[in-house]
Amino acid sequence: MESSGSVDAARKITDLDKNCDLIAVADYLVIENLLIPDHTDWQYGFASNEMVIAYSDGSKNAAKITADNWYQLIQEEGVFIGRSDPNADPCGYRTIFMFKLAEKFYHMPGLAEKLTGLDNSVIRPKEVDLLSLLHSGNIDYLFIYKSVAIQHQLRFVELPDELNLSDPKLEEWYGQVSVKVRGKKPGDLTEIKGSSILYSFSIPENAENPEGALEFIRFVTDPEKGGKIFQKNGMKTIQFLDPRYQELAPDFTP
User: Fold this and answer.
1) Alpha carbon 199 to chain centroid distance?
2) CATH superfamily to which 51-174 belongs
3) pTM for the complete prediction?
4) Contacting residues for 235 by C-beta, under 8 A, at least 6 apart
5) What is the average pLDDT across 45-62?
6) 3-class secondary structure for the chain?
7) Rounded CA gap, 69 and 4, in Å?
8) Short-list 22, 15, 49, CA closest to 207
């Protein structure tokens, strides 16, 4: 098993031609844009999440930060924030989605550019790479998934649904914003539109043990097995198979 940002995981298949029995990503658009149709012809959505701002007791302004003033406090001198690389990790471009949606939600033109360009930003390949920096006090705030904040027993600010990317009913609102990231080939750019958070998986065509991958999928999608694990760790379980893939996906039933 290998851990990496979702975009990097897909590129291990597309660019490095690595064999992979099962790929699970934090954004279904990674498989949609990078792996379909050349490396797989289906994907299955299995969980959702939401974006929060995590912090510690030692974070500057920890006693003051709220869902109404976070964008002001993180701009203050001496405050350091962490976010993941949008070219490597969905959490990274989702953070930028948040900034752009905040600009619209709070009616503050130019806010997204200010937040994206802050000199106090620490960027790493994936969001979990920043946890140690938060614990050590090298950063004050971290844009991260709610499930990760819960699993690591962090304090966090919950944001309005208009910003946290958790509500499928707000797809049209989220879709107003987009981010350009590295595409399938060096030098290419792919535009990703804002959308609600949906984790998905697929079995690539170069899988060496597709039956073992299928058994794992059955465990993950079983409400009494994998489902309980996800819920315990702050995630919502979903079972979503796009109608386009219904004839192409394998049978997940036990």
Assistant:
1) 8
2) Periplasmic binding protein-like II (3.40.190.10)
3) 0.83
4) 47, 48, 49, 147, 199
5) 95
6) CCCCCHHHHHHHHHCCCCCCCCEEECCHHHHHHHHCCCCCCCCEEEEECCEEEEECCCCCCCCCCCCCCHHHHCCCCCCCEEEECCCCCHHHHHHHHHHHHHHHHCCCCCHHHHHHCCCCEEEECCHHHHHHHHHHCCCCEEEEEHHHHHHCCCEEEECCHHHHCCCHHHHHHHCCCEEEEECCCCCCEEEEECCCCCEEEECCCCCCCHHHHHHHHHHHHCCCCHHHHHHHCCCEEEEECCHHHCCCCCCCCC
7) 32
8) 22
Tokens representing residue 235 in the block: 């995630």
| Matching residue, tokens 């060096």 | 186
CATH of domain 6-48+197-245: 3.40.190.10
Domain boundaries, the chain: 6-48+197-245, 51-174
The number of angstroms, rounded, from the C-alpha of 33 to the middle of its chain's C-alpha atoms is 15
Segment 175-197, tens digit of pLDDT: 999 999 987 777 888 899 999 99
Half-sphere exposure of 226 (CA within 13 A, CB side): 13
- Burial class, 197, CB count within 10 angstroms (exposed 0-12 / middle 13-18 / buried 19+): buried
Q: What is the mean pLDDT of the chain?
A: 94
Mean pLDDT is lowest, of 11-15, 133-137, 185-189, for 185-189
**Per the structure block, which two tokens stand in for 96?**
């930028």
51-174 matches 6-48+197-245 in CATH topology = yes
Which two tokens mark 166?
Answer: 């958790």
The C-alpha atoms of residue 252 and residue 239 are separated, in whole angstroms, by 11
- Structure tokens given for 118: 């802050």
